[in-house]
Amino acid sequence: MIDRRRLQPPPAASLETLEPRQLLAVLNVNDFGATPNGGTDDRGAILAAINASAPGDTILFPGGTYNITQPIVVKGGGRIYKGANGATIVSNGAGKRVFHLVENNATFSQLTFQGAGLFIDRTNSSQSGMVQGVIVDNCRFNVQGGGNGIEFTVGLRNSRITNNTFNPINGDNGIYGYNWDNLVIANNEFYNGNEGIHLIAHWDPSPNLLIEQNYFSGLRRMGIEIQGGGVNTIIQDNFYENPSLSPRYNDNLSCFAYSIICDRSQNTIVRRNTSIAPQRPDGTGVRVIFELGGFNLQAYDNYSYGGNHVVAVNGTNATGVVRDNRFSNYLIGPSNANGAKVVFINNGPNVPLTWDINRGRPYPNQRFGEAPPVGEAPESPSALSYQVQSISVVNLFWTDESDNELGYRIEVLSDDGTSWHDLASVGENVTSFTVTGLNGTRTYTFRVRSYNQFGVSDPSNAVLVAMPRVDIITNEDLVNELTPIGDRRNTIGAVRDLTDPRSFEV
Questions:
Q1: How far is CA 176 from CA 42, 147, 162, 179, 201, in A?
Q2: What does the alpha-carbon distance between residue 118 and residue 302 come to, in Å, rounded to a whole number?
Q3: Which residues of 292-310 are buried (b: 16+ CB within 10 A; e: fewer)?
Q4: How far is CA 302 from CA 17, 323, 481, in A?
Q5: What is the tens place of the pLDDT at every residue in 373-406?
Q6: Tens digits of residue pLDDT in 49-74
Q7: Is-contact 495 140, C-beta < 8 A?
Q8: DSSP conformation letters of 152-200
Q9: DSSP 266
Q10: Cβ atoms of residues 320 and 299 within 8 Å
């Protein structure tokens, strides 16, 4: 039985009195003047909240969209920057960066970044060396206007980037950086755009990089690209598919699945990775599935179907072995170049692997190798309706039909009516959402789905919203009947800016 009291919107969060100040406080940016969905520059208010915080505090961003015109320099010291109910920070300034971190020990969680996301270096910092203790977890990066979702230029030590979604990547990379020491990049999704992960070890001893259980789809360049040095790098259990290929041959010259061409590296392991790339619109397809380099390289237990050159060891004087891999439907078999002396043993279409190629793909917060979850996906929300608030704002309302959801995903139909895109997410028991940045006279179609750790529900009914011009708004425009449309499903994306047509590029 559903407790209908749960359907009431939760009370707005408020900031407790800070004097006398308590340790590990939660500072709500709204209490410092940041206005969600206000359309004004919230940078000063957000900075005021950060400057009022102490090490270990949480800076909370309640649901809504916050606009900034310049990057915000954020502090470390164990501070947590946390979003709630689909909180989104949009950078409209030069460089499009949202946050700039120059200190150690900071956590970013459940935030959506629209622009160039998070930049990490030591500019004007009293600290030196690699930035340490950084956690980026369960965030969404909508990379627009160039740049990278996450970028670090002085190295990351004892840090992790996990369970994030990068979609679209209408810039350079989802993650881009130089040098590392004990860095984990795991269970992230990279969709629709240029390149997933690009790392360079200018500092050759960069040790202990683990890239595992990430998913790559709809990319024009590489899923993973690693160059330079590195010691004891492990690339495992990643999944690459659906490359974005052009029918023009020269457009696809840099389309690779896994380019682990770190030719000064030592003891790199590449194992249990998947590539499914049979597409060849230009007659060739993905140029290289596994491009490899380094000394004492070990590549084994991988699965690849399709592509042009299945393994190209291009690293200068590379050594090691490529063995026991299941490779099929490629055009060119494994080979060495540039003086490489890697040995190829037992690679072919019928090679047995230690794992099931039908195990599916990794997701944020869902790892291979763990016991499968036991439970059911939530029921679909119902009775989706809307109310036009202004020529650029519409409120969505729905009924909670589940007692086990973790939250809701609001989706919008693309302009051509062919695909659904994730617009935002809100938490459990929330039954409304405000969409801003709409264009008057345009028509939008929305639907909602619930989700939990076991899956995603079928979609609600859809509503067709015709935005009015400012001079014809009447009371009748504010309450509309539902307009059901066909049921189409969609992979999960990132928050979209409906005023930017590039948000729907694939």
A1: 27, 9, 15, 10, 11
A2: 32
A3: bbbeebbbbbbbbbbbbbb
A4: 56, 9, 53
A5: 446 778 999 999 999 888 888 999 999 998 888 7
A6: 999 999 989 999 999 999 999 999 99
A7: yes
A8: ESS-EEEEEEES-EEEEEEEEEEEEEE-EEEEEEES-EEEEEEEEEEEE
A9: B
A10: yes
